[in-house]
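haha ok so turns out i had the wrong file open the whole time. this is the CORRECT one, sorry everyone. sequence first:
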Amino acid sequence: MIENTKCECGHQNRVGTVLCEACGKPLIELGEAGGLLEMRYDGAARRSQRANPGIIDLVWNFFSSVKVAVYLIVLTLVGAMLGTIYPQVSTFVNLQNPEEYYKNTYGTLGSIYYQLGLADTYNSWWFILLLVMIGASLVICSLDRVLPLYKALSKQKIKKHMEFLTRQRVVYQGQVEGSAEEWIQRAAPVIKKKGYRVHTEGTALLAEKQRFSRWGPYVIHIGLIIFLLAVLFRGMPGLHMDEYVSFPEGEIKRIPGTTFYLKNEQFTVKYYTEQELPKEFQNKGKLVAKLFQTKAVLYECTSNCNDPSKTPQLKEVTRHDIEVNKPLDYKGLVAYQYDFDLTPKLRSVQPVLVNKVTGEEYGKFKLDMMNPQRNFTLGPYTLELKNKFMDFMLNDDGEPTSKSPNPNAPAFLFLVKGPDLPKDGAQYLYFPKQVDKARFQQDLINEKLGGVEKKLELDVKHMTDVDFSKASSYLNIRMDRAMPFVWTGLAIVMLGLVLGFYWTHRRIWLRIDDGQLTLGGHTTKNFFGLRREVVAILKTMGIEVDEKSLDNGRNKG
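then structure:
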């Protein structure tokens, strides 16, 4: 059965329309509620009210529901609350084994908390899915309502149906003398003085002001959508970073995930003297840092940035002495000083290749811990660096790996080719530190790899061939290119709140039929203010009326 939505004025309305788009006559019985009309969206039909919805319409209807949006927000809030029970993994610096930490620190509940994924709540798939669904709900809710409202307000008819006028919240009916058209023309400038935009058509008048306030809720939605997108996109590479990186003195080191390199030219630490310390800390034998400073140089890679076989070309972009609360800041990349380590760190060694049978030396080469060369030629032998492990360890499968990026126990795996070796070469694992050679049994590992250690050996002959950095500066590298969009979204939300709270959309309709004046007024809020304006307008036109008599709502009387 096809529903007839054609109004008596001749206008064909869409299915689901409550008030005729042309004359405003109610098309369906709206209930009493004090006899007032439902003026949300001016009675225009919404897509979510479509008859016989398809699959796409059902999805649209689901996300356009305010009730569904409330449920999603409540679920998100509950999830966010669960994420605050114990500290999140992201709040720790270099936490090697988070599962063990939660179990040992918080017991069984902590272990369950970690197993459920709540230790990384805000990066979990279900939390991100909830944010995406809230964003979808905001978009669809807005489109489902703002488009019909815009069409209704942009195509308003001046002369409205009598029932439309008499079922508004503010209503006046009374006799006027003289020509109806002249009365309307005299009333127009009076109403304009109240800030209204006035449109007339014969014996009918439409006055309207501050329509822009109707878009306040949808401006809020736009701001929230931008805010949610910014929060979600923070996880994309290059948009957000919060890393803790050590920079040994005198070294140039790449900042992970960027094309920037930072050099710690010099690290300085100064301590309080005994006299400068408070009395309760004196004579305790403790050193308290007064100042620790990193003279930093920031470089940007211009070429060979991702080719490990070539030396990157760097261009200096800025210099800064980094201190606590005085970070280096360059185009959104910020480096904060947060700690230091005065333990000497191995920077490079110059080992010699020795023939263990004859004792012949084939020369030495420089092996940099952080940025080593890939190929070396020593006499009749060639060494190709296949892999490096900055903090050597064997995993559960007995395979070599690195447990941290710091050169605590560096190891280098070479492929050696030359006389008395297999045609395809043989592998050789080299530990620069003597303590690591004994701890990890270098000779035993190399025997299993191919037996190079029986013929050749890499060894450091003199301490002058070992280079240590005196100190390491620990910097917190932050970059958040999504934050401007977060603040933009919040600013738009505030704009929407201001639009919706400090202004009100007010409309007044007039029509005169056979000397009978009928006035209907509607506003989004503050009906008392609208009543006072109508009383002032009628008084100027020579009509005295009691303000309370205009109230057509439940509180009439």
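The two ends are 45 Å apart (CA to CA).
again sry for the mixup
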